[in-house]
Amino acid sequence: MGLRSYILKRIAYSFILLILVLALNFIIFWVMPGDPISLFINPVKGSEELRKITAETLKKLWGIGDPLPIQFLRYLQNMFTWQFGDSFVSFKPIASQLLYYVPFTVLLMGGSTVLAIVFGVVFGVLVAHKRGGKFDSSMVLTSLIFYSLPTFWMGMIFIIVFSSMLGWFPIKGAYPSSWTLPGQWPTPLTIDSSSSSPQTLNVMLNLNTGDTLTLVWGFLWHSFLPVMTLTLFQYGGFLLLARATMIEALTEDYIITARAKGVTERNVLFRHALKNASLPLITNAALSFGFMLSGAIITETVYTWPGLGGWIWFAIQNKDFPALQALFYIVALSVILANFVADLLYGVIDPRIKYG
């Protein structure tokens, strides 16, 4: 089987998996106890007849009274066309709220995941090369400590030290409080430093150099502590995995041959051993990026970060079923795509893998 056939086969498998995930997502909310209609009917005000009329109107509007197969087909159509409906809480389109929260989550989770992978893999290779020494023991110990500490505890310690005591970083938020973000994202950007009124932050491509630097610095300044918290929490897993796979790879015969031929130790580690030990790392990295859009509920809560994790927690508390269905679908789609990319990378990195 060639590469093209393999890709088509993986696409078909991924599509079938996506249908099964969507079906499970539909069933979960269909069998969930409670009636969403009751959230919109005041149990005190109005007569019983008026409440019944209101309930019937909402059921007809939402199609709740339709046969279950019709509801499921309509649900699939809405998911595939990204017509997620309106939130039960904010009464705003869920798609527009996703556009607002996703950039903050990508900045927080994407930045911390990339840093954790880079530092974890690099230090994992080095400690595998220096295994048994003090550097190996100290790095493994610190990685286990940070991996074991609760993220909310690390976040609070960082806030106390770097925000309250030293005043180096802000305590909360994803951008300076002088910026006022509108309800939707993206929108035009204007930063008027001469105006005495609260400044308005919108995002657009026609930024001058000063506004661009102000925008980038504002987000980086506020994201430093939460990104550092998640990076320290995640990098230990990549370090331990890279160390374990590298120790096994460094005992292979081709490594001894490469050293005997005079290949530099850096090339031996990063071009020969790491390439052949990278398949488990690719799987772990793909899963990390796949769950990136699920956000970090605890870390976002500690730092008051406006990401998807906090929105998921808020939707659970307020029984915002349309928002939860959309969010679960987005997370599942991200994981499926990440695994699809990982499967393709296996064959690119390791030629021993045959498609078929």
Fold topology:
Layout: H1 3-31, H2 48-62, H3 68-80, H4 94-129, H5 134-148, H6 151-165, E1 179-180, E2 199-200, H7 209-249, H8 253-260, H9 265-276, H10 279-290, H11 297-303, H12 308-317, H13 321-349
Parallel strand pairs: 1-2
Helix pairs in contact: 1-3, 1-13, 4-5, 4-7, 4-10, 5-7, 6-7, 6-11, 7-9, 7-10, 8-9, 10-13, 11-12, 12-13
Q: What report would you give on this structure?
A:
α11 crosses α12 (308-317). It contains 13 helices and two strands, in the order ααααααββααααααα. With 356 residues, it is mainly α. It has a two-stranded parallel sheet. Helix content is 68%, strand content 1%. It has one domain (94-349): MetI-like (MetI-like fold, Orthogonal Bundle), CATH 1.10.3720.10. The longest helix is centred in the middle third of the chain and has 41 residues, at 209-249. The protein has helices spanning 3-31, 48-62, 68-80, 94-129, 134-148, 151-165, 209-249, 253-260, 265-276, 279-290, 297-303, 308-317, 321-349; strands at 179-180, 199-200. It starts with a helix and ends in a 7-residue tail after the last helix.
TL;DR of this structure?
The protein has helices spanning 3-31, 48-62, 68-80, 94-129, 134-148, 151-165, 209-249, 253-260, 265-276, 279-290, 297-303, 308-317, 321-349; strands at 179-180, 199-200. It has 356 residues and is an all-alpha fold.
